Protein: histidine kinase
Amino acid sequence: MPRLPSPPHALPAAPYGLRDLAGLLWALLSVPLGLVLLAVELAGLVLGGLLSWTAPGLWLLALTVRGALAAGDLHRAVTRKVWGETVDPPPRSTGAGALAWRRALLRERAGWRAVGWSLLAWFIALPPLAAVTIGYVYGLLLLTHPLIQRWNYTTVHLPDGSTRRVSLEVGGVQFDTWPRWLLPMLVGAVLLLLAPTLVRLATAPQRVLQAALLGCSPADQRIRTLEETRAQAVTDADATLRRIERDLHDGTQARLVGLGMHLTLVRELVAAGAEKEELLAVLETARGNATAAVADLRDLVKGIHPPVLDQGLETALATLVAGCPLDTELSCDIHRRPDPALESIAYFCAAELLANATKHSGSSSLTVDAYTETRALVLSVRDEGHGGAVVGAGSGLTGLLARVRTVDGTLECDSPPGGPTVVTVRLPMA
Structure:
């Protein structure tokens, strides 16, 4: 299925914000614009189809498809600005030259899906227009009923020859006199208050169809995700290699060079018949350099693959928790051991999440849960801090998301203001 747009945002604190007024304007313009688009697209399709055996006919069809794509871009932009929801555009291929451009337009499914949207846009725009009529128009008419009843009425001729004016009558009950007109005024006020919500709800089918016809297909979305994760994996591998090279050059290599110099000095001292104390001092310095080089190598290897993971993820997480400065509770329920790659990703995700919580959350305690489901390894870290963590806000969560996506994993962050913050990593298992 195509990726659906995100659910509607929470209702604003006060009605008639800028977004609600923009939604009202767009609901009023969608039907006439949709009818114009329908007429243009139908004309292009019919004329292009009749002339498709000629070059001008093919160019007309290609321009018709390109116009539908442009209209789709406009609708996606309006959806993003008005409703705050993003529909990812499908990938488009453009060849070199006019003929390749025309061929790409006529062959790609994205263009013809956009044509289908253009033919249906006016019809899908009818529910928002009906919501505007009910919420805004009837709401205003009912709220101002006591004022406009002097002009908005019909004359009823009675059997005895007399007449009476009727402005609002429901089920034989008139609401034209005090205090009966308070009821339509109340209904009108409620409709006006709910009008932005009615319009927003009425656009839900429009947004769903837009995601289906103007958004990425499942195959396109899969390809885009694989391209992004592949690029991220290449970047991470390059950064890791550069870090290893820098650590070896600046740390271990320098210590080994120093070790070699001291051993050379020992050989010269032995040849010169130096005193025992002098030889021991140089050997002690060389031994210190060797010990430091071994420690640097151990730290370097630990950054690539923590040796504690050889004992299993439970032991590795217990080691992480033991070294955390906050009061941390660990719960593990891992029925079968995951692949080494998944264990490594889960370990580094846990390490990063514990570090983030320690630095930024303001919490005094943490909870780490790791368990296996039928087809997934799940890692969850919870803190009782001030909340407000957002993926992509420089909290390190963006890097974790890129890491878990390399194995088709997901990362969810639930962090309302005031906390608590719960970050859940789900890694699919074979």
Q: What stands out?
A: The chain has three domains: 8-155+185-216, 218-304, 309-428.
